[in-house]
Amino acid sequence: MAAARGVAAEDVKRAKKKDIGQTSQWTLMRRRFMQNKLSVTGVIGLAIMYFLVLFAPFFAPYAPDDQDSNNQFQAPTSIKLANGHFAVCPMVQKLNTSNFTWTYKPDCNKSEPIQFFAPGFSYSILGILHSNIHLFQVKPPTKIYIFGADDLGRDVLSRILYGGRVSMTIGLVGVTISTVMGAVLGTTSGYFGGAIDNVMQRVIELLLSIPTLSLFMAIAAALPQDMSVIKRYFLISIIISIIGWTGLARQVRGKVLSYSQQDYTAAAKLAGAGHMRIILTHLVPNSLSHIIVVAILAVPAQILAETSLSFIGLGMLPPAVSWGVLLAAAQQVQVVEQHVWLLVPAAFVIITVTLYMFLGDGLRDAVDPYS
Amino acid sequence: MVNYIIRRVLYMIVTVFFISIIAFILINLPPGSALDAQIQRLRQQGGDISMQQINDLKERYGLNDPVYVQYLKWIGGAIHGDFGQSFTYNAPVGELIWSRIAVSVILSLFALIFAWVVAIPVGVYSATHRYTVPDYIVTVIQFVGIAIPEFLLALLLLVFAATVLHMDAGGLNSQQFQNAPWSWAKLMDTIKHIWIPVIVIGAGSTAWLTRVMRANLLDVLNYQYVQTARAKGLKENVVIWKHAVRNALHPLIMSLGTALPTLISGEVIVSIVLNIPSDGPLFLASLQTKDMYLAITFVLLQSVLLVVGNLLADFLLAWADPRVRLE
Amino acid sequence: MAETIPSAQSTEIRPTGEDNVIEVLDLHVHFFTTLGVVRALNGVTFKIPRGRVLGVVGESGSGKSVTGFSIMQLVQHPGKIVKGQILLKARKDDQPINILKYDRHSQQMRNIRGNEVGMIFQEPMTSLNPSYTVGNQIQEAILLHQTPDKDEAWRRTVDILRRVGMPNPERIARSYPHELSGGMRQRAMIAMALSCTPSLLIADEPTTALDVTTEAQILDLMRELQKDIGMSIMFITHNMGVVAQMCDEVVVMYLGRIVERASVEEIFYDPKHPYTVALLRSIPRIGLSKGEKLEVIKGGVPDSYSTVTGCPFHPRCPNFMPGICDKVMPAETPIEGNPHHTVRCHLYPGSAAEAEVETSGLAPGTAPAAS
Ligand SMILES: Nc1ncnc2c1ncn2[C@@H]1O[C@H](COP(=O)(O)OP(=O)(O)O)[C@@H](O)[C@H]1O
Ligand SMILES: [Mg+2]
């Protein structure tokens, strides 16, 4: 019922008009956002995830590169309740002489209690918080592997938490780069129009005619292998933002085009305001909410891009840890078949991306309920 | 109309030309080439190898020229279908590549069809049963479907097939057919294997298309002409399928252009994981061994596929939507 | 939310013995939105005698369209007819039937739509499906209700297009809507609505989107066809000038209630309700001297969620009487000496006699959560 829809839209317009100023518009958005259960789930879930990876050393029982040849491919530790305490059963290693692999058996006769807030390896968070207290520890030589251990006996949980620091932020850096590029280029394109706009649109079309992954792969393969982790991190994030900015630039351009035709822009031009001033005081603030939404919606794709690249060995490389690097260890079916827990990082990828989509969707609906 | 086609084709050629330059530069960026590796191998085998011999080899592959001459030579050949020599395989790139591109096209096409055939009915159902339990389920599945990267889905399926079904889901053929000539039995074997990559490649697109279809239809259902159709006394089914869905398809067709790069990317990575004899694994290998002409040709041909796909999508849109004029 | 909806047949009102095509009795329509219940119609009662044209006027948002859609049982989600009767008497000798007894998806209801009751909409640009030819869309209705024979249906399609004054009906039938001008499209819509010779035509602001010349042509056409076919029209508009040209009787709506009803002469020469008076003042007139401003009703329609006690018009009323208008809902009162002219206003004696103390709009606390 377009008539009814129009009426509803009019209602909202009326409501906007009545509430003077920007704040009320933001309030309205926030109200719509808070009503959406999925988007609230997204915010809370992501907050928890980022909290976990920020304090990764605290939540991780072991350092991510802490190898242990006695516990290669150790299966997830089973936890039981003993004397009212949580405890783990130490594992006994035995060599299976038929195929020369280690097999493990829990020995629950002497269980080892889990100690909470106990000292372990020393760490510092953000260079300011120094400590050696961890959420949980068990007394060595018994080890606790919530999600099992990898081929070198490293704790998968600890590696996931540390890997999240790369995987959950590399997309953000990429999105920030593409957002700034997209916003600047899109605004310029839409505002000035003409030849600039034309060239920009052609460049975008050109970039969109290159198969994304192949382009990433080609560029990533061009990076030298012996680069520092930090440098590689930033280069990879730049690579994954190469395509990302195009979509954003298009959307921003569309918005700017519609705003440019509005009276206040014309008025500002007539009043002799400079281009920069008009762009910064009128166009950018007006498209800001849209830019934010598009940026958030772009994060999942970039997280997935890093994971995929690292998985095929062209993204982050060991010794760096990221979820893609962890999953690369699960490339061989034969390996995964016997050690399914190596796929646990996948769950973290999926959860993070889903949460971001919930958040982005909710934001879009809140900003633009009739789109 | 004819004008339009000519313009579009010219435009395509220019695009592909630019992409070839970008690809060439990119792939020439890293120091060293496959030749260095080959020379090293020769040194290890036969001990001494003179500067003269190295130069001969470089001459043969045209590596002594400046980059732009190399490019011009290569593009000149490429126009005639000669894409240069592969260093690692010591064979013309053309010979290595065509069968693999064919497999890629078939896989992508099937995945596309799969995605549309599943996404449209599910999207329509979801939109017409908004706020019901099945709609919520579809919504959740499609969120997860978009969130799972293709390579993971491929990996999960491989593991699932191996542990539960006790079959090898990788490749396009069982062991005994891998190198066999084409036959009826091999075709059947291929069909038995091909659905796994098709579903894996198509899964993301399916989820995404379902979402788009649902949103479009909800949008179209707000248009007056849907109410007009109801006011005529048409059955709700006819209103939905004849009047609403028909119009909700237009944005879907329009989005084909943006969906294609994702599809091809998905095909590349899934082929790598599932070890399918398509462009994916060979492309990755060529990047790792710096087999430059091979790598460049892959990027180029994938772009051609994309551009042609876009053109076809535009024709499809013009055919489906009477308002669109091709000019 | 089911428990908040009283049964649609709770208060049976006897139909009058006259020959009315349609009789709407105490119609209540609520929209159960996420933000609360919008009471779009609050007890609307009117009838349309056979062969007459009833004008329904009021500002946008007063519930005119919802009334029209209710008769078709096409009120869109989340709207519901919560109370009232709609009695249809398609032919002179039929018994009136309460069509609200039929399910909105039932075969009986579909037979009424398009066949007994036709409808045309405000936006000729969007009321035809862009993907099918005009002829195809008209033929569809004829095939549905009149004849299963395709060729015959096509012949009738071309006939009816000729009848609505299309210059080249064969060609028009084969054109797509986007190839026609607004006026032509509206003619095509009229052709579609009349293709099955309905006994009632609901025209929802059919000329609002057209320019003045085209508007005049379409109005002429509708009047002519109405005389020829002998159908009744429910003519929805917010334009008093159009009412004068088209209608025999008029009801004036404000916020989901009829505030005045009278013959067209009386509405123009002897308007009673301050709202009607204000509406009439807002008609542009020839001879309006320069500097004399066209009057606009002061204030805006209050938004549908807020609560207004007493007469819903009192905040904008020039004759506002404190203590009564803002406390007591006026009842519908006949004007002395003329039972066919009624008004809902405290200015006229008897209005408070059976006054309901009630609020209009959203009643806080009764709002159920999103459906
Ligand atoms: N889909 C809807 N959702 C919520 N409220 C609606 C909807 N459609 C109509 N309404 C409400 O019904 C009231 C009457 O609308 P309508 O009949 O379209 O007015 P008009 O007199 O302009 O035709 C409006 O105030 C609006 O708030
Ligand atoms: Mg209306």
Structure description:
Chain A has helices spanning about 1-20, 20-35, 35-55, 55-60, 155-190, 195-210, 210-220, 230-260, 265-270, 275-310, 325-330, 335-340, 345-365, and strands at about 80, 85-90, 90-95, 100-105, 110-115, 115-125, 130-135. With about 375 residues, chain A is mainly α. In chain A, β3 and β4 (about 100-105) form a beta hairpin. Chain A is elongated. The mean pLDDT of chain B is about 85. In chain B, a hairpin with a 4-residue loop joins β1 and β2. Chain B has two domains: about 1-100 and about 280-325, no CATH class; about 100-275, MetI-like (MetI-like fold, Orthogonal Bundle). Chain B has a two-stranded antiparallel sheet with strand order 1-2. Chain B is globular, with a radius of gyration of 24 Å. In chain B, α5 runs antiparallel to α6 (about 135-145) and α7 packs across α11 (about 255-275). Chain C is α/β, with parallel strands linked by helices. Chain C has two domains: about 20-255, 3-Layer(aba) Sandwich (Rossmann fold); about 295-355, no CATH class. In chain C, the strands form three sheets. In chain C, strands 6-7-8-3-9-10-13-12 form an eight-stranded mixed sheet, with helices on both faces. Classes of the chains: A mainly alpha (about 375), B mainly alpha (about 325), C alpha/beta (about 375). Chains in contact: A-B, A-C, B-C. Chains A and B meet through α1, α6, α7, α10 and α12 of A and α1, α6, α7, α11 and α12 of B. Adenosine-5'-diphosphate sits at the interface of chains C and A.
Describe the structure in brief.
The complex is a heterotrimer of chains A (371), B (327) and C (371). With 327 residues, chain B is mainly α.
Defining traits:
heterotrimer; A: 371 residues; mainly alpha; two-stranded antiparallel ribbon; 13 helices; C: 371 residues; alpha/beta; Rossmann fold; 2 domains; four-stranded antiparallel beta sheet; 10 helices; binds magnesium ion
Write the layout of secondary structure elements.
The complex is a heterotrimer of chains A (371), B (327) and C (371).
Chain A: H1 2-18, H2 22-35, H3 37-54, H4 56-59, E1 79-82, E2 85-88, E3 91-96, E4 101-106, E5 112-113, E6 115-125, E7 129-137, H5 156-192, H6 194-208, H7 212-222, H8 229-260, H9 263-270, H10 275-311, H11 323-328, H12 333-338, H13 344-367
Antiparallel strand pairs in A: 1-2, 2-5, 3-4, 6-7
Helix pairs in contact in A: 2-13, 3-5, 3-13, 5-6, 5-8, 5-10, 5-13, 6-8, 7-8, 8-10, 9-10, 10-13
Chain B: H1 2-28, H2 34-46, H3 51-61, H4 67-79, E1 85-86, E2 91-92, H5 93-128, H6 133-147, H7 150-165, H8 184-220, H9 224-231, H10 236-254, H11 256-274, H12 279-288, H13 292-320
Antiparallel strand pairs in B: 1-2
Chain C: E1 20-33, E2 36-49, E3 53-57, H1 64-72, E4 79-88, E5 97-98, H2 107-112, E6 117-120, H3 134-145, H4 150-163, H5 169-173, H6 182-194, E7 200-204, H7 212-229, E8 232-237, H8 240-246, E9 249-254, E10 257-263, H9 264-269, H10 274-281, E11 307-309, E12 333-335, E13 338-343, E14 359-361
Parallel strand pairs in C: 3-8, 3-9, 6-7, 7-8
Antiparallel strand pairs in C: 1-2, 1-4, 4-5, 9-10, 10-13, 11-14, 12-13
Helix pairs in contact in C: 3-4, 3-6, 4-6, 6-7
Bound molecules: adenosine-5'-diphosphate and magnesium ion.
Adenosine-5'-diphosphate sits between chains C (31, 33, 38, 40, 58, 60-66, 76, 79, 304) and A (3-4, 7-8, 11).
